[in-house]
Amino acid sequence: MTIRVLVADDYGAIRAGLAMILNDADGIEVIGEAADGGAAIAQAKALNPDVVLMDLRMPGIDGITATRRIVEEGLAQVLVLTTFDLDEDVYNALRAGAAGYLLKSVDAPKLVDAVRVVATGEGVLSPKIARKLISTFASIAPPAPTPAVNLDELTEREREVFDCLGEGLSNAQIAGRLFIAETTVKTHVSKVLGKLGLRSRVQAAIVAQEPT
């Protein structure tokens, strides 16, 4: 199955270069481009990509906000690709639900591999970012428990989708397992998040893995 990618970056030359790299890779197709966060959200809704390759510093709606919106609505997996490795950017992007965070210094083969990994619902981080997170988490107190949720609010199908989120499955994988359309999966994900009061599918995955 071809991985459909939307590239969001405010520099046209960078978008063109990324599109060239990804289109040359087997099984990957760039289906659209966006020059700002607002366009990225609109294009994600219109084009139904598997992965959005997202820059952070863009005019108008920034990449963090766009990532949060795209993830909350279950539109696609988001892989951040940026020049910046500031702690605040990294943490905000991951809290917004990004499935991966790479720096633009990454070489082409690793970028292609990262897109493939994120498309499966898995996460990926550049080594430098991974070291930052390890250092941070080693020095902080244990996080507060995730909020309690009432799974009785979910229909049988929504519970199945919720369980799939707990396994880290992408929308395409959930659709294949449950024999439903990806657009239907996105609708169910949105309803699950709303009923359980969760902000993103990442948080839903964490809650789904906790003992009931």
UniProtKB/TrEMBL annotation:
Tell me the GO molecular function terms.
DNA binding
What span is annotated as the signal peptide, if there is one?
Answer: none
| Residue intervals of the HTH luxR-type domain | 147-212
**What does the UniProt keyword field contain?**
DNA-binding, Phosphoprotein, Transcription, Transcription regulation
Its BP terms in the Gene Ontology are: phosphorelay signal transduction system; regulation of DNA-templated transcription
Residues annotated as carrying 4-aspartylphosphate in the record are 55
Identification of the protein by name? DNA-binding response regulator
Task: Write down the species.
Answer: Amycolatopsis orientalis (Nocardia orientalis)
